[in-house]
Every structure is written in structure tokens, then in C-alpha cells.
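INPUT
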Amino acid sequence: MNPKLKIIVAVSLWLFGIKPTFAELAIVVNPKNPVSSIATSTLKQIYLGGSVLFTPLEQDEHSSVHAEFYKKVLEKEPAQVQAIWAKLVFTARGGAPQVYQSSTGVKRALSENVNAIGYIEKSSVDDTVKVIAVIR
Amino acid sequence: MRNLLIGLSFVFLMIATAGVDAADKNNDGTLTVSGFYSLTGAKLLSDATRDTSNSSLYQNHSCPCNIAVYEYGGVYEKDRGIRFDQESLLGIQIRKKFSPTLSATAQLVSRLRNPNDGSTPTIDWLYVTWQPSGNSGWMLQVGKMRIPIYYYSDQLYVGYAYPWVRPSADVYGTSIYSYNGINASYRTQLGTSDWASTITAWSGSYTQKDDVYLTRLFFGQPTNEAWKRMLGGSVAVTNDVFDIRATMMHMNDIVWRDRAGGAPSTTIVDKYSQFAGLSMNMDYKNFLIKSEIDRADVSVGKYKYGLLGIGYQLGAWTPMYTYSRYLDDNSSDSGHTHVASIRWDFYRNMALKFEYDLAKEHFHHSYPISERSRLLSISLQGIF
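OUTPUT
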């Protein structure tokens, strides 16, 4: 949703007495993982290949949750992130993160890998995942 | 005509790969095919040479000329106008994952300029990776790999990964750039801090017959080189702003020439050689800094190099100014280059780059390579 449209929707909702909520993101892991919180800077490094603390799980680049994550956490243009991963992939330092088509896919992957980390809409959180950070 | 065909092939490739994700997988997701490409053209604009006659034959080239790629002899000659065949390439990487702990990877690169192999793709990388467990910080690799001696050394041909058309040739381009051997690395988060670190060590050797750099750009006659008993290591520390890396390597550098009729070859140099490099890169609130200082003490000389680049991320545009320099300790020859570059990420997985290099050389003997040259480059670089 482009920023202008967001403002129009927000103002309209406010006029009708409804408080608008934009997508909050939840950073989630498998409930068996001992980690209970994570700093944004560490999260950034994991998604840019700088840290192997967790295996990052990506969402489809056309999804709004992906766009929110890039804007609020990575604070980088998609091309910059792609360039960083290209360097790692083509110089024997690892593979780019696996991409999932939806938060359901991310949650399923987390249930299969205790060492993975993912981002989903806060509204998608259920008891199959543990939340270790919330991005507003 | 040749340039036109090259251009059309790349346009086709661009269109064909524009919608493709970085990984084409087979059914069980264990085979990944990916790749990268560069379509680069450049023109040497003008220069001032010490030798004032029009063009002099310098080894295999018609100079005034500018060396852009030392490893494969990519040279732009003033009287040949704009050329697209000195740096353009296509790389394909195939990775097969046998288990969460074992995989094998091959990277083949086809270059338009390749004196030894011509149009046959070269196997730039061929290695097996093993980890004790899927999420381990430890990794072991065996095979043929590029030597990560300076920051951009192992990614030299993946243009999409860096801001310039090419990392400055003042710094980048050794006579031998691959090794057959083994490397081990360990990555870890430093306590509860922001910092992560990677420590790597590698060992191996490599023999290059008719070494392109020595044969075409240095001696002017067929020369072989081998780097034996290579031992190198690097330590890198990164947080989300800084990326600092120190590297060292030593080896035995042997340069020799074959003689006709089965006569024993002539050893020209057999020298204990060393490399050292320190790089510091920064990415903070759209400001980018790339910097490094390096030194090399090898068979054919003793050098110091460095570069400093300052850039800014303006949406899809990355303008940058870079200064690079080299000094030959033995002859006191030196050179420096001012580089103005701009990268435009106009579409997913591809970038258009424009670059202007102003190079000045100070020679203490009189072979006629450009004393001052201006190179204008344009490049389309991408990944798939």
C-alpha cells in the first residue's frame, strides 16, 4: 500500500472512530529454542549473512510483510541486500535464505528447524511459534 | 558486428533471467543453479605518454593502453575505440546439497577475453563443503577456489556485489588468483555484543602455465608461474555498520620458462613471498566507505596498494568517489587513479553502472605505458 493511500485510509478510519493498525511484525522461532529475545542489530546481521546465530527464513519479495521487514529492520534497499547475498553465494560462504510464500510456510519451516528464525505478521502468531521480538 | 551480437545476447539473457529467482531447484530442492553476468564496455579517451610517437607496440598491445583486468589480460587500447570484449562475462554456479552438512559446488565462468581458454568456460571454483552440523559455525572446504587475499579478491567477477564497474586495477589483479587446497573457517557472535567474527585459514598451491599476467603484461614472452606451499589466514569482525578484515598469506613463488626441444626449463625466480591486507568498510545511514591498504612481496616485485572510496545510497542510485594508489618499492614506480562511479539499480537483480577513471602513472624507466589516461566505462551487471 503506498504511503499516500495509507494516510487517506488512516484519516478515514479515524474519522469513523476506528484506530488504524499497520502491520506489526513478530520475530519468531521454534518454541524449543532457548533464546528469548534478540536485538535489532543482531537480527539485521543474521538476515545479511553476517551472523550464523540462526538460519534466516525469508518471505516472498512481493509480500507486504517482506516490505515492512526490509523497511523497519534491515533499513536497506532490496538491491543492497541482494548484492550482499550475491557476494556470499558466489564466494563459497553460504546460500541465500530460503524464501517462503506465506507466514504459514514460515511457521511450518520453524517447526522443522530449531535453529531457524523468521518474521511474520503479529496477527499470525499462534502457539506453534515463540515470539522473541516485536517490530512496530 | 561482433559487439552488436554480444549486446543482443546479453539483452536476451537479461530478459530471460529477469523473472527468475536466484535458485532454480529440482523437485527435492537439493540442486541449485544460479549465476551472474557483466556486459562491460569501455573506451580510453585520451592520454599523455612520455613517448610522443602515435602508438607504440608494448608487448602484445597497441599502446596508449589501460590495463583493466590483470588476471585475464583485459586491456583497452586507445586506437581501438569502445570495446565490449575485454571484461564481459557470464558465470554459472551449480550447487548440490547431499545433506544438511555436505554439499558440492561448481562455478564456471565464460569470458569474452580469455587468452588461454578462449570461449571455453573456465572452472573458477570447484569444491566440497562440509560442516559438523547444519547450523555449525565451523566449515571445511576442499577443492579449487579463488584466493581471498584482499577484500574483493574472491568476488572480483561478481560485479553486482560491488558499487564500481570493477574494483580498481591499481589494487586488484594478481598473477595467480586461485588455489587447489583446503580451507577452514569459524564464524561466531562475539558474546552478547553487536559484533560477529569470522576466522579463516587456507592452504594449497597452484600452477599456471603461460600465466597471462607474466606472459602478456610483464615479460612479453611465455612464462609459467607456480605458488607452492600457500598458507593464509584472515580475521574479520562485523556489526551492522562496520566490516573490518585483516589477511595474511605466504607462499613460494616460482617463475620459470620452458625451453624448446626438451631442454630443462629455466627458473627465473624462486622466492618466499608474502601478502598482507587490511580493509575497513562502513555502511551507516546511507553513507558508504570502502577502504583498504595492502602489500605484496612477490617474485616480480614488492608493492604497496590502497584505496579509499566514499559513496552515498540515494534510493536506487549509488554515486561514489574512489581514490586508489600503488607503489612499486623496487623501482619507485607509482600510480594513482581518481574514480567517479555511479550505480543505478534500475530493476530487480540488475544494475547499470557508469564510471570515469583518471589514472596517472609515474615511471622511472622509459617503457611507454600511458602516463595519464582517462577511461570511460559502462556496464550492465546482474545475478540470477
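end of record. The radius of gyration of chain A is 16 Å.
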